[in-house]
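#structure-requests
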Amino acid sequence: MSTFRAPKGTYDLLPPDSAKFLAVREAIAAPLRDSGYGYIETPGFEGVELFARGVGESTDIVTKEMYTLTTKGGDELALRPEGTASVLRAALEANLHKTGNLPVKLWYSGSYYRYERPQKGRYRHFSQVGAEAIGAEDPLLDAELIILADQAYRSLGLRDFRILLNSLGDKECRPVYRTALQDFLRGLDLDEDTRRRVDINPLRVLDDKRDAVQKQLVGAPVLRDYLCDACKAYHEEVRELLTAEGVAFEDDLKLVRGLDYYTRTTFEFVHDGLGSQSAVGGGGRYDGLSEMIGGPPLPSVGWALGVDRTVLALEAEGIELELPPVTQVFAVPLGEEARRVLFAAVTALRRAGVATDFAYGSKGLKNAMKSANRSGARFAVVAGERDLAEGVVQLKDLESGEQTPVPVTEVVPALRARLAQAAS
């Protein structure tokens, strides 16, 4: 047994479970590809300052959860704790916003890292699929992204999730609310770290999950009462667009999310079957982030959906995804000549798009057939010296046990026909 283990708070993604993760990623990505979003991939680490500015110096992510390192050259780097800041940095660096076709619509998939207390649904290494629409201020974009996430979840069969929706205002109306909230919070019995947060970003206190804090927040000023007319109209249009498309949502006046860059629309997808870690994804509008990291004004909106959390949600609802078989045909050679002949047949089957595996290592018939059954294949191709002398191989249906000789030259069309018949 190996003396090495996966680091605490991480996990290895192995077959057959890995197939579910791939299917979830594909289901989330499919509606994005159909809606004009192009794929982007960024490095797994960035300069620390990108996240300090973009995510926010007062957030738990920056102050407590980022994995940071200093290179031999003295550069301060951080493993990426989220995707939006990296994607926007890459888009700005490549001048994608100058192509004249705004918004720039991008989607991504990758691993992210946060130093958190490990528990079910919360890992130090986790996987997300995200989408960003950069460079346009339009309620239709906000609604589009929420609808696409809803579509992705429903395509997987999920039903027991809820969409929480709120508006965080903008640079015109939020400062007024910020002052009113600070005045309220300074009158509460809060610990030193939370009082410091009141001075830096009081909205983050609303997101505090501790019961002792939440009980004191009863009667706190509500941002909705401070929204300017433009933000009210914008938010109402998003709500109307979602309602018109039959996408149900719940207004959550305390929803602020965990990142400092959000403005106006903010939303979260939650699943009540996951316990305390109920959020499976979320996002919102971040109209000022580009300027925070040194770019021009580029109003933008996006989301990230957790692949790990989505798989847990599927399990909570008892949903088994229909996954394509890893192996459809398994070749069992008996003798050296059969190994060469069947290896050629396996190669031809694979080129024809048939998932095929082989009994490697000169196994005997009994062990080779056990491997064929364990592989999940529907058919086995068996050949020995006598079969080859007659110019045939044996096709065995591993479900019915029926066995039929087929000319060696007809293996590919015969198996394709049998697989099509079995699937119908």
